[in-house]
Amino acid sequence: MIDHAYLIPLVPLIASIIVLLFGKEGPKSNMPLLSIGAMGFCWLDSCSILYKALTHQVSMPYPAPSLPWFTFGDYPVSLGLLLDGPAVFMTFVVTLVSLLVQIYSLGYMHGDTRFKRFYAYVGFFTASMLGLVLSSNLLVVFACWELMGVSSYLLIGFWFEKPGPAYASKKAFITTKLGDLGFYLGLLLLFAYAGTFEIPMLAQRASMGAVALPVEVATAAGLLLLCGAIGKSAQVPLFIWLPDAMEGPTPVSALIHAATMVAAGIFLVARTQFLYAASPLASDIVAWVGLLTAFMAATMALVAYDIKRVLAFSTVSQLGYMMLGLGVGAAGYTAALFHLTTHAFFKALLFLGAGSVIHAMHTNDMREMGGLSKKMLSTSVTMAIATLAITGFPGFSGFYSKEAILAAVYGHSPLMWAVALLTAGLTTFYMFRMMFMTFAGNPRDIAKHDHAHESPSVMTVPLWVLAVLSALAGFLLSHTGAFEALVHLPEASHGGHHPGFLLWSALAVFAGAAGLSYWLYGRGDFAVAADLKAKMSPIFTLLENRYGFDDFFLLLVKGSDVLARICFWIDERIIDRVFVDAWGLICLLLAEIQNFIDTLFIDGAVDLTGTVTGWAGGGLRGLVRGQVQEYLLYVAMAASLFAMLTLIH
Amino acid sequence: MNLLSWIIFTPLIGAVAVLFIPKEKVTAIRATALGAAGISFLLSLVALAFFSTAESATGMQLVERHAWIPTFNIQYFLGVDGLSLPLLLLTTLLTLLSLIFSLSIQERVKEYFFWFLLLDVGMLGVFAALDLILFYIFWELTLVPMYFLIGVWGGPKKEFAAIKFFLYTLFGSVFMLLGILALYFNSAPHTFDLVELAKMHPGWTEHFQIMAFLAFYLGFAIKVPAFPFHTWLPLAHVEAPTAVSVILAGVLLKMGGYGLLRVSYAVLPLGFKWFIPYLLVIATIGIIYGALCAMAQTDMKKMVAYSSVNHMGYVLLGLAAVSSTGFNGAMLQMVAHGLITGALFLLVGVVYDRAHTRDISAFGGLAARVPVYAGLMTLTCFASLGLPGLAGFFGEFFCFLGAFQRFPIFAILAVTGVLVTAAFFLRMIQKVFLGPLNTKWASLEEINARELAAVLPLTVLTVYLGVWPRAALDLMNPTINNMVNILAPLFNK
Amino acid sequence: MTLTHYLALGAGLFAIGLFGALTRRNVIGILMSIELMFNAANINFVAFNRFLHPDRLLGQAVTIFNITIAAAEVVVGLALVLAIYRKLNTVYAEDYNLLKG
Amino acid sequence: MTGIHLLYPEILLAVLSLLLLLADLWTPSSYGKGLFHVGILCAALTLGMIGITYSDPALQAGGGSSGSLWVLDPLSVFFKIIVLVTTILALLLTLDYATESRTHLGSFAALVMLATTGMMLLVSAVDLLLIFLSLELISISSFILAGFERKSLKSNEGAIKYFLIGAFSSALMLYGISLFYGTTGTTNLTALKAPGGPVFLLSVLLLTVGFGFKASLAPFHLWVPDAYEGAPTPVTAYLSIAPKVAALAVMLRVFLVLIPVGGLELTALFSFLAMLTMTVGNLTAIFQTNVKRLLAYSSIAQAGYMLIGFVAGGKTGMEGLLLYCLVYVFMNIGAFAVAILIGNEDSYELEAYDGLATRNLPVALLMSFFLLSLAGIPPMAGFIAKFYVFAAAMKEKLYLLAAVGVLNSVVSVYYYLRITYHMFFKPARKAQPVPASLYLYSGLALAAAAIFLIGLYPDPFIAGVRLSAQVR
Amino acid sequence: MTWVAFYTFAVMTLGAAFCVVTFRNVLHSALMLGVSLLGVSGIFALLGADFVFASQILIYVGGINVLVLFVVLLAARHSDLVLRQSNAQWLAALLVCGVTLFGLLRGLKAYRSVTLAAGPEPGTAKIARLLLTDLAVPFELISLVLLAALVGAILFSRAEAE
């Protein structure tokens, strides 16, 4: 199957087009099954590829055939695949998460009037991501990148009748597009220097040193691509779209946060690692952006009450982690991609679980929840597993990946490590806060609580599958060394030894944060928390306002609106006037000259003013007033002019 | 008469035939017009089949040459190459589709189709003519029908729009005529033959080339329209009937870009070279400024019109690059813009026919009521904002790529226009299609078969060219490579 | 007596005629002034003929033609004046201003 | 009398017009229309006569002997034909013209023929005396024709203004001729010595006044709108073409001799005159609301374009001028024909054209073609004509003149299109269709066919023009 | 002796001409025109142009001037005598005339040295020969002009009622 790996993005794409164009729309449409089937096929295919890769039946990167696409000038461009370790793992994760999300959605989206269309979009979304992951051509990567932007636009705004989603989808698209401009320019820059879009060829060129690819170019290109990643992966300062993107259906959030959209940015930076390797400056900036994002997002999650927003901020924070990892060298590279994989599982699980809760409660607000563990056992248990995984509880998958990143960061800069560790503590705190507020204690909204019930098995089964993976994936992949074997940079040193206190400090932070969370939120009433909030309201407000980034961007939008209006005003009032009315002006001028001459000579001293006003509007017609002797005068003037002319000669 | 003549003059035959059908027989008139445009389109497909896309096929193909006015060595000289054929195809296709869309015209049908077919003749001729005088005659031939089409069947300010269009473009083209004459009298032997003239630039001083270039540029820039000569465009587009807006945006603007490549660049390279810095500034301003102006609009059609200013800015940017990449981009962008903006105008026309308003804020939530229409519109908007996978992307991309290779600063500045484009299109979608359904339009009808027949081919082609750009690139690339290579020593100095 | 004397006389007559044609309000006055201009030309013809080209009496012959032409013009002009006078009851040129613009 | 045989056509026409006058005197007024047809026939006969005269090589040989007052060369034949064609067309138009009194149609025809005789002599004349007398014959006939509608005050007023300016410029011209005679000792152009000097120059310039008056060049054009508006419309059509064309022809002939002989540098002056004429004509036309007046200003502007060909000079310029004259005949006659139709039906105001496209589409379309041809839009003949003169200007490197010319053609489009605006864009004020007679239709069709033929296949016409652009 | 005659006639011509253009009463103007034309005929006589002299008196003074007088009388109103007879553009006209005269005189100064070589001789026969040979066509043409003028005069001055 590996020779036909191109089917992996292609099959869902075709399925999605079939579903969209030919399927019957309606709550009871059968078309979702086609979509799920297609994704299942892809998953199996990716499984087989992964299996072959893990068992070394094929060598990575695998030379897949490519298809000539088009030629412009003297540059041929082809459609090719880059099947290497990260791609194979990513494919597996994406297909699996997408498959589970789609199955889950059978329950979650059941009864929606645009049931079929949802699947078409999700299929398209996944296909774009798969194309991005697998393509060897940076141009195709960009294309898929943009298509993903569109799919997210469509899915976030899926319930477009409500103003919220309609606005959020636009915001997501524009914000990411802002980052995409960086990607776009980076692409232009790389092509301008290298004359190719092929990632392997670019990498090869970068490996040839500064002669082939000057450091400044590498830095510039790296930073420009980073802009793209910042947009897509919701890093500071472009993270603002992600919390709003929660307006979409929850399965979509799961997909976006776990496997597709936001992962793409991380994956892009990983794919173009060679640029950052060539430019320490760019690499450092990547790390700092990641760190800053991780920390800021974690702080913002502390004060969120919307269950999905908490998760959204946590995603941003985790993505910051990954970015941080990518910025700290070869060890970080492997760790970041590992975290990307494990994060996919537990974040998907968290969102799907949250979806289950929302499905039951018909609200997102955690203050109206509480005590759900009794009513929704599967959900609460699986969510708990995911929480342990994300907080890095030993043995769960997050533990391995996060520790790896922390270790890599420590090796790079202890200061960064300290901040990252603090962030991990914050993560633990707000995740437990979420769990406590949702599932523990007594119900705070009785009516909704009474109404709530466990979700159907079509929704819970995917939860359990993901729960198993969240629990075990880290252990399996890390201990067997399978992941590192496939995903590593050439210069990476294997099995580096880390000081023991890294682990202990992490565990201590975990324990402290979890305890604090229990003290504040786990005991039924939030009196202490409320008190704290009242005391530190400026900080809370700042956090709730997301450090003012939203306002800043709103200002930007307003500013561009004003600019647009100014431009239009200039267009209508000035440019149009100048180039169109100029004719009129010339005519008027001629008429005025004419008037002047007339007034001067013809009227003599007789009623000068009256004539001027009388003729002002007359234009050249003033010349022909029907007075025959004036006509004669013009002729005579010409004649006398002639007489003078002869004298000059 | 060979194939190209037939393509050009079939609509003329149709027009004359329409003139002789009594005006009461509306169906016969429509059938004749559609038939003529259809045959012309089919013949252009035949031309495509005969057209060689081999790397070596850089010359003119399907050439037809007769002496016409020997006194001035004016010839009836037609031919196509990679520059003209795509635009020729675009013209025949858009004309056919516009005519299909125009079947709903009820008022003065006979005149309408007569003028429309006459317009077609002019446009096709411009792209096929290789003699400058012939080129000029066809160029001017488009003005009159356009004037009538806007003036009779247009919107509230149609008369003003029509005359403004006519005078503005005529103002440009008369200077082009002077440029043509200057070329003629400075060539030895005197000729209007574009192919011959393209070989004569070594004998001309830079000063002469600059002056002649400016004369031509005025004509082309107004047509493109390049900042600051664009102000006729929003008015003309807004006031013109839908099908005419399609032609105006889809074909007429391309004549400017085509002329810049075919005449200004190929015949007057030193003038072109001298102008590049200015062209860059103009293109960049056009891109950003056009997009910003579009953002300020509340009228959908006007917004699309200003977006044309923005998109043709990309074309100019690509031209300023003077490389295969840039030229390919410019050509591709022109074709794509023809398809996409054509579709956009048709779609705006669809809703206008029903709602009698184009005010963006007058709508809301239409996606729920008219999903097919909304889908098509959304797709087209995305194509227009340059989404990969749709036709708009590659043209834009190559334009930027070409420009970036030589003038990165301008490319970087201009890229911001892309963002603004996205912003105003998405805002339009949001306000018109998303959100709660405005109850005023609760009974709005879905797009009908006639309109679909006009729009769908464009949509399909938009997707096709977006996925498989070589369909167009293979046609253009040999010619463009040749053009660039011939003059490369001049420009790379 | 030099030729210039005669020519200056012609020029003077011409200028006076010109002035009259430009300023007389009465159409008949204008007509008379134009006659003066014709006469100025005639003086020139005859004078030139006499002084510079006496071998052939072309100048005098032309003068004969001019006198005849002047007569013809006056006839038509006066008829027109009478015709319009019958309708408008005025001979002042500035009153003929129906056509303008 | 050497070479009198060359004037047989003129003599024939003069005699015929005298006979017509006599016939008009002795026949009852109801026969007027019949006499009119006879007049047309006479003009046609003369046209045939030209053919015979010119095709006989034996007769040709004697033409243009030194000292003769007239020559018969291709140039004069060309213009004679043009003038005669115009005469015939204008007379045909008169048949459709609804005048308040249809009496004296015979005299009318005779006067037109007399004027035509004058023009035919004018284009052949190589002697300033003959030129002056021919001009006077044209003028006096034209004055009468302009005032032919005796009951119309406008007609009277137009005629008297026309007369006053005509007589005035005659006087100026005559003074010029007197100076010319003084400096050269002759009025003949064929055997001219090179005199030079300021007086000679002044005489030439005063001659220009006379020609400029007839050709309606600015600033000698001011009578044009008034006379044209007042005159009966067929006369307007006739006056707007024939005298103008003939005057330009004689200008061409005179200056072709004078400029080399006198060593004159008049290009700048005539360039200026051309630019002024075009600009004044066009800019003023924009404000007109009366179609006759509008066409009057347009004809002034057209004279400006023709003058470009004259200024450019050389072979191309001459050919351009000739071609322009040829084309101008058809497009202007066509436009006036429609004006007569609408004038009969309603009025000469622009509002009368409202919605003509819905009332009579063919006429509206044809009118648009004539107007666009006047504006110089391809593929109508007006474009070829403009192209030719602009080409001549560019060839002589008169860039400013060419630029002003093309800009003017843009301005002119504005007012030409104003008529189409009324015809096509405005709703009709009356519903019933506009009837048109067969005469008018055939006249329109002929003119339209001519402008399209010349526009699309100009080669034979250019060849003809090239043959004609020869003087002896 | 010649110069006395010349200046007499010149003063007569110019003075009368000046009166023609300035007199308020048109009738006086018309009479003054006759005087001026007579002066011109005197100049012709001085120049030895006998036939022209005769023609001038016969046609101009005897014909044209009488005709003018007729029309002046026909088309006269009482109010004419009290109204201004020159229009508002006299200043411009004066300027133009001054410039023209200045230009003309400067140009014509060149002939200051030209004086008469021989005395006059009768020219009538010569003119007649000229008119009937070389200038026969113009001579015939003038008859056409006169005819046209005649037709016009009849047409315009015929009574309305018909």
Summarize the structure.
The complex is a heteropentamer of chains A (649), B (493), C (101), D (472) and E (162). With 101 residues, chain C is mainly alpha-helical. Chain C has three helices and no strands.
Structure description:
The complex is a heteropentamer of chains A (649), B (493), C (101), D (472) and E (162). Chain A is built from 28 helices and two strands. Chain A has 649 residues and is mostly helical. In chain A, strand 1 and strand 2 form a beta hairpin. In chain A, helix 2 (31-54) runs parallel beside helix 4 (115-134), helix 11 runs antiparallel to helix 15 and helix 18 (397-412) runs antiparallel to helix 19 (414-439). The longest helix of chain A has 54 residues, at 549-602. The N and C termini of chain A lie far apart (98 Å). Chain C is mainly alpha-helical. Chain C starts with a helix and ends in a 13-residue tail after the last helix. The model of chain C has no long low-confidence stretch (mean pLDDT 91). Helices cover 76% and strands 0% of the residues of chain D. Chain D has helices at residues 8-26, 32-55, 57-61, 74-96, 105-124, 128-146, 153-184, 198-215, 223-230, 233-262, 267-285, 291-312, 314-345, 356-359, 361-375, 381-395, 399-425, 438-456, 459-468. The longest helix of chain D has 32 residues, at 153-184. The radius of gyration of chain D is 21 Å and the shape is globular. Chain E is mainly α. In chain E, helix 1 (2-22) runs antiparallel to helix 2 and helix 2 (26-46) packs antiparallel against helix 3 (50-74). Chain A binds chain E through residues 601-606, 629-630, 633, 636-637, 639-640, 643-644, 646-647, and chain E through 87-93, 95-97, 99-100, 102-104, 106-107.
